[in-house]
């Protein structure tokens, strides 16, 4: 009878195993998102070339209402708070130099270039990204995806494409709305409570902003929407393990999307800086 103690890996081996597992999960996510985006673009191209290929306007409209229209209230609320916060935080340091009127310049640049698309993407991640992952995951658990495939219906075409298009387009429009809301409520704080002239706030905002500020924010928003919806669809379609798997997919979607969006924001800001768009 053997008396050998069971093998216990050393702490170094456990760390290496955790490190390798992290990279495997990262590559799995990147590969899955890549194929989601590839398939979506493929079906979009087919729909433009072949008349028989229809993506379903009703399905897209339904997702736009569900993802975009229902998010308007929360996005505006968060953006209004951001406008208030920026104006309040900028007033003390600017007052030391007698430059309180520059609140408009800082609020407009910060919102249009960075905070508008970033905050809108984070809000939409919690509001719609998690819901997409949970909905698709529930379909997987309920074998609805297999039923579609059994009827020769492609799940990417009928389930993923409408959600990706709706999330991407909705986030662009929500970002534009968030930008305007934050600047307006920043002005409310500056004019109503910080003794900044309304005409000066309006003039500085208009003079500070250029088309590049507007377009860079919307480009970011479109990419963020594509990232958000692709990660949500990927996690939803690979659910295993019943209800617990659906919960895990929802949590993973929120965490992964926020990290990916912030990293993408860093990459785009660096790119725009190097090409002189800032």
Give your account of this protein's structure.
The chain has nine helices and no strands. The chain has one domain (19-274). The longest helix has 39 residues, at 11-49. Helix 6 (155-193) packs across helix 7. The chain is globular. The protein is mainly α. The chain starts with 10 loop residues before the first helix and ends with a helix. The chain has helices spanning 11-49, 57-67, 72-95, 103-141, 144-150, 155-193, 198-208, 211-237, 242-274. The chain is 83% helix and 0% strand. The model has no long low-confidence stretch (mean pLDDT 90).
Q: What is the count of DSSP helices, taking H or I runs of 4+ residues?
A: 9
Uncertain residue ranges: none
Number of domains: 1
Question: What's the helical proportion of residues?
Answer: over 70%
Query: For the report, how would you describe the main beta sheet?
Result: none
Give the class from helix and strand content and strand pairing: mainly alpha
Q: Measured on Cα atoms, how large is the radius of gyration?
A: 23 Å
Order of helices and strands: HHHHHHHHH
Number of E-state strands: 0
Distance between the terminal alpha carbons, to the nearest Å?
74 Å
Topology:
Blueprint lengths: L10 H39 L7 H11 L4 H24 L7 H39 L2 H7 L4 H39 L4 H11 L2 H27 L4 H33 L4
Helix pairs in contact: 1-6, 1-8, 2-6, 3-4, 3-6, 4-6, 4-7, 4-8, 4-9, 6-7, 6-8, 8-9
Summary?
By secondary structure, the protein is mainly α. The protein contains 9 helices and no strands. The protein is globular.
């Amino acid at each position: 009878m053997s008396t050998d103690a069971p093998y216990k890996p050393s702490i170094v081996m456990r760390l290496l195993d955790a490190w390798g597992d992290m990279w495997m999960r990262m590559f799995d996510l990147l590969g899955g998102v890549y194929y989601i985006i590839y398939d979506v673009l493929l079906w979009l191209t087919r729909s433009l070339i072949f008349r028989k290929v229809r993506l379903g306007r009703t399905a897209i409209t339904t997702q736009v209402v569900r993802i975009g229209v229902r998010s308007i209230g929360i996005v505006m609320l968060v953006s209004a708070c951001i406008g208030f916060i920026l104006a309040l935080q900028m007033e003390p340091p600017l007052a030391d130099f007698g430059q309180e009127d520059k609140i408009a310049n800082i609020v407009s640049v910060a919102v249009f270039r960075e905070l508008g698309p970033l905050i809108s993407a984070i809000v939409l991640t919690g509001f719609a990204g998690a819901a997409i992952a949970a909905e698709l995951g529930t379909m997987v658990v309920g074998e609805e995806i297999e039923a579609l495939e059994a009827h020769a219906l492609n799940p990417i075409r009928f389930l993923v494409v409408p959600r990706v298009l709706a999330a991407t387009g909705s986030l662009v429009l929500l970002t534009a709305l968030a930008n305007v809301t934050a600047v307006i409520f920043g002005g409310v704080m500056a004019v109503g409570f910080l003794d900044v002239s309304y005409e000066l706030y309006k003039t500085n905002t208009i003079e500070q902003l250029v088309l590049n500020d507007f377009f860079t924010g919307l480009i970011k928003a479109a990419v963020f929407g594509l990232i958000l919806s692709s990660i949500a669809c990927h996690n939803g379609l690979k659910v295993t393990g019943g209800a617990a798997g659906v919960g895990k997919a929802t949590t993973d979607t929120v965490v992964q999307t926020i990290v990916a969006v912030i990293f993408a924001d860093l990459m785009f800001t660096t790119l725009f800086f190097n090409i002189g768009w800032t």
